[in-house]
Every structure is written in structure tokens, then in C-alpha cells.
Amino acid sequence: MPEPRDAVPLAAVGGLGLPPEATAPPTVGVEEEFVLADRNTRSAVYRSPSVVCAARAHLGAPHATPELSRSQVETVSAVCRTAAELEAEIGRLRKGTAAAAAEYDCLLVPSGTAILGRSGPPPLLDHARYRALERRFGPVVDDQGVNSCHVHVGVADREEAVLAVNHLRGWMPLLLALTANSPYSGGADTGYASWRSMVWSRWPSAGPPPYLYGAAHYDGVVDQLVATGAAMDPAMMYWHVRPSAHLPTIEVRVADVLPDSASAAAYALLVRALVGHAVEVVRAGERAPEVSDLLLRAACWRAARHGPTGTLPAAHTRECAPTAVGRLIEELWKRVEPHLSRYGDDQCVGDWLSDAHLKGAGHARQRRVAERNAGRLQAVVDDLAIEPP
To answer: Which of 50, 85, 273, 332 lies 20 to 30 Å from 167 when distance is taken between CA atoms?
Structure first.
């Protein structure tokens, strides 16, 4: 998410740096990106400057921001601690932004890609940073109007945050599979569950993070990538999971934007619990397996291709053996359930995981709607579009 640095950031601070006796849930915040579609044609349209202005009037300036393409809008949540706060906040931002979009004859669509696409590359937002990206990376910038969901979890100690990333990186393929929500692009079925992740992977600094030996190693890797020109600055570490470049958080960036508020909240709570487990094992002195970046990338490709069906490499283990997705979910649940139960989040997250596995992620929903409507992708846009209040 190559955001302008003058955007007001989500301030998800505190949380897992608290002493063990503290009972407050760790902080969590969510950034979601959406495509703007014309109300009549359902194709992507380039009205984000106007829509963002209107959304800020509805929601407050910190909570709506522009994105790389003028067909995108991003929402930025307040800091939350409880499931009820989080779902209400996500719903408020979605409804308010949908109302702003409606003022300009747009639909706000939570899909990882523009379902009915555009004619040619989308125009970039007129911002100095984005123009610099275009000059440096050329056609890589084309069609980067893709939409993800980023979850920030408060981790106060940076050294712990960096080491926790090692324990999280192996779970990114499963999280991608469970949130895949972009099978269509430009009016065609790509054959993928998450085409967004394939488009985003074109950036030279995107993909799985390397295995990191501490904060100093992380800083050295970032400096080297910037020196090569593959990244303009530390904010361009487009890894699936990373210590945030500007907040005391771990940021999990692997997911497509999810189709509804309840799913987005459940996913964010799952991420919070997984981060909690990772920090816990770091504090216990447990070392994460050093799975190669290449194997992680291959596992993420399989997740993007098929979603939560069949098998995925067990990328959280050194062997990376092909494993049934249901079995991987069971292994994940063993790790997160204590953290979910502690804050009463186990029921909603468990229900969402079960639905995603049994019914498929957002990509399956999109294809079911298309099938029921004789392949009319306008119906898919209508099914996903968020109703204004």
C-alpha cells in the first residue's frame, strides 16, 4: 500500500508490550481498501479525490485517505480493543464511505480487484510520491489499483516485534487462502482465488519477509533494499508481515479486502491472537523454523491460485509438507484459541474460519453469484457493494 506520507496514520499503539498482569486486550486497527464502481455501468471509475473529500466530512479526516489509483479509497480505523468496538468501527467506516461514494454516483466495492476493470492502466493519484513510483518502476505501477486489508496489532518492543515476524511468516499462505477475494479482473475470470496478490507481487519489495535475526538485522536489510533502488524508503517494505514503518505495531498485510464487516472483524481478531501467540513464544525463547523465502513464496502462490481448498505447504514447519487446509486450520486454532478465549473472541472467529473453509472465501462467493446470474459480473458488483446508511 504505497500511501502518501502526509496521510494521517492509524495509531494502533500499546498492547503486547504490557506487563503480563495487565488484562486489557492488545490494541488492533484495520486499514481497508475499496474500488469505486460507477453506479450504472459497475466499471471502475476515477472519482476518489471527490469521494475521499466527502468521506472525510462523514467520518473525520484521519479515517479516509486516497490510494495509488484514483479508482480507490482507503479507510483507516480508530484504535480498538474489543470485538464489539472493532466490528462497529469497521461498519461505521464502510457505511460512511459508501454514503460519500453515492454522492458521486459510485458504489463502494470490497473486492481485491476491479471486477469489471478499466480501459487501460488506471490514472495515478496526482501526488509527488506516486509520480516518483511511476518514474522509478515504470509499468510495474500499471494496474496496481488492487485492494487489501492490513491489520495492525500493538507490540511495544521493537526487538520482540521483529522476532515475532519470524513466527508469523509461515502462516501467511493460510491467511491469504482464507481471505482470497479477487477471482475476476477486467471482466474476466482469472482462474485465481486472489488475483490481487499476484498483481501486487510485481513490486520488487513485495512478498514473504526474510528470516530476521533482530531489529538491527531488519534495519540492515531495509537499508540494503533502499540502496539497491528496489524500495524508495522503509515504507516500501511491502512484505506480507512486518514491523510497521511508523507505528509500534506488527502489520499483517497479506489479505484481500474482505466482503463484509463481520468477516473483516473476525479476521482482524484472528490476526491479533496469532500475533499474541508469536510474541508469547518469542518471550519463551522459542526459535522459529528458518523456512526459505522461495518456499514461502511458492506456498503463497498456491494459496492465491486455489484459496482454502485442497492442500497447502505447512509453511510454519521446516519440512513444508503438503497438508490439507482443514488440518492447517486445526494447527492454527491450537495456537490462537487461548488468546481468543481470553477476550471472548473464540466464537466469532471460529464461526468465520469454519465458513471460510466449508463454503470458501470471498472468491467462492463471487463465483457463486456469477453462476446464479448467467455469468453477469454486474451482479457480482451489486452483491458486494456496501449499502449506504
So the answer is: 85
d(CA 101, CA 52): 8
Burial level of 62, CB count in 10 A (0-12/13-18/19+)? middle
Reading phi first (left if > 0) and then psi (alpha if -120 to 50, else beta), residue 291 is in: beta
- Name the residue among 197, 181, 147 with its Cα closest to residue 367: 181
Return phi, psi of residue 200, to 5°. -65, -30
> Rounded CA gap, 252 and 254, in Å?
6
Residue 330, all three cell numbers: 486445526
For residue 190, report the phi and psi dihedrals to the nearest 5 degrees.
Answer: -75, -15
Residues 6+ apart with CB under 8 A from 328: 174, 312, 314
CA distances 19 to 59, 83, 275, 376, Å, are 34, 22, 16, 54
Confidence (pLDDT) at 8: 32
CA pseudo-torsion sign 339, 341, 344, 345: positive
How many CB atoms are located within 10 Å of the residue 239 CB? 20
Per-residue pLDDT tens digits for 8-24: 334 444 555 544 445 68
At 265, the amino acid letter reads A
Given a contact cutoff of 8 angstroms between Cβ atoms, the answer to whether 182 and 34 are in contact is no
* Residue 38 grid coordinates: 460507477
pLDDT at 128: 86
Q: Indicate left, alpha or beta for 317 from its phi (over 0: left) and psi (-120 to 50: alpha).
A: beta
CB atoms within 10 A of CB 156: 17
CA-based radius of gyration for the chain: 19
CA neighbor of 175 nearest in space, from 264, 81, 74, 293:
264
Instruction: Please state the rounded mean pLDDT for residues 211-231.
Output: 96
For 185-316, where are the alpha helices, taking DSSP H only? 195-200, 215-228, 261-283, 293-306
Q: What percent of the chain has pLDDT over 70?
A: 93
Upper half-sphere CA count for residue 106 (Cβ side, 13 Å)? 29
The pLDDT-based confidence of 2 (bands split at 50, 70, 90) is very low
Alpha helix positions (H), 116-214? 128-137, 158-168, 172-179, 195-200
Q: What is the C-alpha to C-alpha distance for residues 272 and 27, in angstroms, rounded to an integer?
A: 8
